[in-house]
Structures are given as C-alpha cells and as structure tokens.
C-alpha cells in the first residue's frame, strides 16, 4: 500500500510532528509514504517526494512544515482538480492524508468525489473546526500569544497604559477566548462574543475608575479596524492607548508538548484508518479521546465554546 501526505493552508506548529508520526507508523505497518509538497498545488504540479523514517528524523520539534504549504487557486478549477487526480493515479497513491484547516478539508472532500480515499488531520492555529476540541498548532500559538501579551503587560503596567492586542483566528475567537481564560486580558472581543465600541469603552472606564490603569483589550482579527477602535476610545475616554497586531509571529515557533503529542496521536490514527480501508474521515480530539468522524458531519461554525465563555464572564 502507498499513501500520500500533504500540508495545506496556513502552516501550524505541530504539522511536522504529524508528518513524522504518519511516516513512522506507516513504516511500522509496511505502508509506503509519498510527500506532496506545497499542499494541493504540489498535486497539481506533480511535486512528489518519497518519505522514510530518516527523512523525518528530528522534525517533530520544529515549527512550520517540511512539506511546505500553499493556498492553491488552481486546484479550485476543474482543470487543476483533474491534474491533481492524475498525479495521485500516476504515483499509485491509494490514500491521501490532508493536514490543514477548513479550506484544506474542502479540498479533500473534492478529491473524494472522484474516488480518492482521503483522511483529514486538523492543523490550524485558528482552532476553527468545531468537531474537534483542539486542532494541531492552537496550543503553541496560544502560548506565543500569552508570551507576547506578558511582555506588553510589563511595559503597560510600568506606564499605566492600555493596549489593544489583535490576535489571529480568521473568523474564530478561540485564540482570544483562551488567552482571556489564561488571564491574558481584561476585555475580550471575539466573533462569537462581539462587543460594541461603547461597551468596550464602558468596561475600560469601569476598570480605570477602579484604579486598574493598565489593561489589555484582546480582539480577534477582522472584527474591527484596530486604529479606528483605538481612536474612538481615546476620544471618548480622553486617555491615550497603544495598539499591537501580533501578526505572523503567531504562526511560528517550536510546537508545544501538547501539540506534538496531539499531532502524533492524530497521525497514527490517520494511518490506522487508511490501513484498515476506512476513508472519508476527519480525525479529532473530543473530551481527551482521539476520534474520527465522517467528513460530511463536520461543522465549521464554532458554537461549542459556551462553557468557556461562561467561565470568562466570571473572571473578567
Ligand atoms: O488560518 C491561519 C491564519 O493564520 C489566520 O489566522 C489568518 O487570518 C490567515 O491564516 C492569514 O493567511 P495568509 O497566510 O494567507 O496571509
């Protein structure tokens, strides 16, 4: 048996650990592995390499992805998809493991329509796949966010300043929510729990009036124009603020122990599925157990964090 593996969409720390686990467990099960470089683009353009245990030696601890990644427009077109299928057939790849987020999973579903056996592993710092409690990369990025905010707080408290910090997440507020739960901020605004400019001002004023002059306001990207929000608060509360967009520092760094273990478990499960002739499954973790579900059952809308928001309300 021969399987392919690719990483697609935004890179996430822990993708390498998943690649390593797939290659090692495949070898254990006498399955050959081919790596597809640059995600779906590599399928379209036939960028295929062989992978064995020596190729993945030592990669688990490294951020990024040795297979490279891309967001591929060509694959969305019929012609590009056909080229991808031809590559899979030419290399006699019997099963494909796709590591990525929702866009990548949609790509996997497209290939399955043509009879390709696919299994997905969730790898995205956004944590925006609601069928799984955690995606590979989220924990590492959360730690990076907290480390950055910690440094901002040192300066904020010295100057008695408030900073608005914009974190990634695309349309999912998990990074901001969990950073808030970890004590990283005083005011948290996410797509799932939007706050109006006036509410943010009101909460900040309450804190300042109580004597808490250094505050961190964490916002998920794409919700507000951070400079516009800053100016609104400054004008309304007559205080000067700082603003920081954390940006791509959030995607880098060596994966945390949690992400490495998660990636390893998910990688092994993905190989087991293909080995046992089971496909069209996306692997996840639910209540600390590795699960896999039919790929038609996945839900991108993150509605499963109500309990976390309740906890947050009680500590802010
Ligand atoms: O999906 C991961 C992510 O980092 C999002 O948080 C962010 O919105 C997006 O990717 C940035 O995309 P790109 O790498 O294409 O600029």
Automatic annotation (TrEMBL):
Binding partners and assembly: Homotetramer.
Activity regulation as described: Allosterically activated by ADP and other diphosphonucleosides, and allosterically inhibited by phosphoenolpyruvate.
NCBIfam families, per the entry: PFKA_ATP, PRK03202.1
Cross-referenced SUPFAM superfamilies: Phosphofructokinase
Catalytic activity: beta-D-fructose 6-phosphate + ATP = beta-D-fructose 1,6-bisphosphate + ADP + H(+)
Pfam families, per the entry: PFK
Sequence similarity: Belongs to the phosphofructokinase type A (PFKA) family. ATP-dependent PFK group I subfamily. Prokaryotic clade 'B1' sub-subfamily.
Subcellular location: Cytoplasm
Keyword Transferase assigned: yes
Annotated Gene Ontology cellular component terms: 6-phosphofructokinase complex
Source organism (scientific name): Alkalibaculum sporogenes
Binding site for Mg(2+): 102
Domain Phosphofructokinase per the UniProt entry, residue ranges: 2-274
Record flagged with keyword Metal-binding: yes
An individual GO BP term: fructose 6-phosphate metabolic process
Residues engaged in binding ATP: 10, 71-72, 101-104
Protein known as: ATP-dependent 6-phosphofructokinase
